[in-house]
Amino acid sequence: MIAVAGRWRTCGSSARLARVSVVALYIACVVGANWLAEHVGAVGVRFGLDAAAAVYVAGPVLVVRDWVQRLAGLRTSVLAVVAGTALSYLAAGPAIATASAVSFAVSELLDAAAYSLVVRRRGLVVAVFCSGIVGVVVDSLLFPAIAFASLTLTPGHLLGKAYGVLAGTIATAVIRRLP
């Protein structure tokens, strides 16, 4: 993958490999987040805040979805959301998987809309950051409310996922500048 004039481009046969790889990474992150939420439970995220362990994967997954859209298109990114959600039922119990399905579907679709709007006006890195924050807020409000019938973990979810979005935004900026 190379960056040309601020856009990601793939050369020759590596284009398909890049698309398949980023879709697989996205789906693995979604399933992994659900496995962590089900099997690890709450973790500290700093400042005395706790969140489901999934936050350390759920934040970056919002950025990876933007990468899927960038490399494979909006349709493929929506299909990846559906696939990751469906496979989550294999990794987690019905309560976590259902909460994840609803929160990921809503947050990822709003993330996609924000990304699509911002990328044309402000560029890739700003779009990844802004759309990621939209996803963080929506997912952090919906997931704990549905999974745990409480918003107690919401502040920790906001912080933990924001770490992932920030790291993903930095990675995006670095990748964009690679020769």
Beta-strand residue fraction: 5-15%
Q: Roughly what is the average pLDDT, rounded to an integer?
A: 90
CATH architecture: Orthogonal Bundle
- Total strands: 4
Estimate the global geometry from the Cα principal axes. Answer: globular
Number of domains: 1
How many individual helices? 6
Proportion of residues in helical segments:
over 70%
Sheet bearing the most strands, described? 2 strands, antiparallel
Q: What would the CATH topology be?
A: Arp2/3 complex 21 kDa subunit ARPC3
Gyration radius (Cα, Å) is 16 Å
Task: List segments where confidence is low: pLDDT < 50 over at least 5 consecutive residues.
Answer: 1-6
Order of helices and strands: EEHEEHHHHH
CATH class: Mainly Alpha
Explain what the structure shows.
- It is a single chain.
- By secondary structure, this protein is mainly alpha-helical.
- The chain is 78% helix and 8% strand.
- It has a single domain, classed as Arp2/3 complex 21 kDa subunit ARPC3, CATH 1.10.1760.
- The protein has helices spanning 14-39, 55-72, 74-91, 94-122, 124-148, 154-177; strands at 2-4, 7-9, 42-46, 49-52.
- The chain is globular and about 45 Å long.
